[in-house]
Amino acid sequence: MPRPKVYLAGPDVFLPNAVEIGARKKELCEQHGFNGVFPLDEIPPPLSVPAEFALATFDICVKMMRACQLAVANLSPFRGVSMDVGTAVELGFMWASGKPVFGYTNAQEDYKVRVEAANVAGDLDVEDFGFFDNLMCESIVRNSGGSVVRHTPARGREFSDLTGFEECLAQAAQVLLESS
Amino acid sequence: MPRPKVYLAGPDVFLPNAVEIGARKKELCEQHGFNGVFPLDEIPPPLSVPAEFALATFDICVKMMRACQLAVANLSPFRGVSMDVGTAVELGFMWASGKPVFGYTNAQEDYKVRVEAANVAGDLDVEDFGFFDNLMCESIVRNSGGSVVRHTPARGREFSDLTGFEECLAQAAQVLLESS
User: Fold this and answer.
1) Does A80 touch chain B (CB under 8 A)?
2) Using CA atoms in the order A147, A152, A156, A159, what is the torsion angle rounded to 10 degrees?
3) How far apart are CA A138 and CA A91, in angstroms?
C-alpha cells in the first residue's frame, strides 16, 4: 500500500524557520509510515498583484488537500486565544471531504480558561465544554477517531515543539494503518 | 424553484440576543428570495456530559450545512484580530461541498493593519494581500463570485449591524438567482 499522504496544516508556514519545521515534520511522517505534504512545498510564481498571489496560493493548498488522505493540524493559539483561522478552514475542508483530521496544541488549558485569562469574553457566551477551542474544531478531531493532544512546551518553543505532532501521527497510524 | 437555503454562519450565536439576530437575518433572507437557516434553529436535548452536548451540536450544524445551498458568514473579528474559528471551519466545509460562501465584516481595515495595531505579529510573517483576514478565508468568498463586504458600524453595534449582511444577500442573489 502506498504511504497515506498527510496534509500538514498549521500556522507553521508563518514561522521564520517554516521550511525547516516542514522538513522536520516530513521526517517524522516518514518514521510513522506517512508521506507529509507541507503547504510551502509548492509556491506560486511571483505575481505583481498581491491578491492574485494569494488566490494562487489558495488553489495550491486546495489541490494539496485533495491529494492527501488525512491532515495533522497545529491547533495552538495564534495571535490571540484561538487557533489560526486558515487552519480552521482546512479542518472544515478536510472533514467535508470525508478525510480524518488529527490535531495538537501547545497550550494546556481549556478554551474557557484562556478566554477568561485574556479577558476577551465581553457579554458574549463562552463555550464551556472542556474543549481546546470552538466546538466545531475539536469535534472534527474527535469524530476522526483521535483526541486533541495538549502539550506544554518549554518557553519559547510554543510553535517549534513537535511532541504533540508526533503523538498525532501515532494516533493517525492507529486509526488508519492498523485498521486497514 | 424553491428558495435556496442559506446557512447563517457566524459568532452571532454567542450574542446575548442571538435568537433575535437570527430572526432578523431570516427576515432579510426572505426579502432577498432566500430561506435562512440559523444554527440555533435546532438545539440538542440537554445532555449531562458537556462534550456530548457539543458533539451533538456539531452534528446538527453539519446536517444544516448539508441541507443548505450556500452560506452567508459574519467574518467580523471575534475575541482578537481574526474571525471566529468555528465560522472558519464552516467556510471550509461549505467550499469543499461545492457551495458558495458570501461574507461581511464589521471592521474596515486589512488584516495586516489590525495585526500591527494589536501588536501581535511577533517574529512571524504577516500576510499582506489587502485581504480582511487569512487568505484561506477571503479566497473562498472571492472564488464564490462575491467580494467580502466591509462596513463600519456605529459604536456598540459591531455584532448587531446587518448592513454588510444585507449586501451579501444582494451579492448572493445576483450570483445564484439571476444566473439560474
Assistant:
1) yes
2) 0
3) 10
ipTM score: 0.97
Cβ contact, residue pair A85, B11, below 8 Å: no
Sign of CA dihedral A29, A32, A105, B40: positive
Interface test with A, best of B134, B155, B157, B158 (most A CBs within 10 A): B134
Instruction: Check if the beta carbon of residue A120 is closer than 8 Å to that of residue B80.
Output: yes
Q: Report which of A143, A129, A66, A93 is spatially closest to residue B89, judged by C-alpha positions.
A: A93
Assign A24 to helix, strand or coil: helix
- For chain B, the domains span 5-177
C-alpha–C-alpha distance, residues A52 and A72, integer Å? 28
Interface residue A17 vs chain B (CB under 8 A)? no
CATH code for the domain defined by B5-177 = 3.40.50.450
Q: In this predicted model, what pLDDT tens digit does every residue of A76-124 receive, in sequence order? A: 999 999 999 999 999 999 999 999 999 999 999 999 999 999 999 999 9
d(CA A122, CA A126): 9
From residue B84, how far is each of A59, A165, B47, B165 by CA, in Å?
A: 23, 24, 25, 16
Test A86 with B88 for CB contact under 8 angstroms. yes
Half-sphere exposure of A78 (CA within 13 A, CB side): 26
Q: Which residues pair with A83 in a beta bridge?
A: A77
Residue in A closest to B96 by C-alpha: A93
Query: Chain A closest CA to B174's CA: distance in Å?
Result: 22
Q: pLDDT per residue over A122-138, tens digit each?
A: 999 999 999 999 999 99
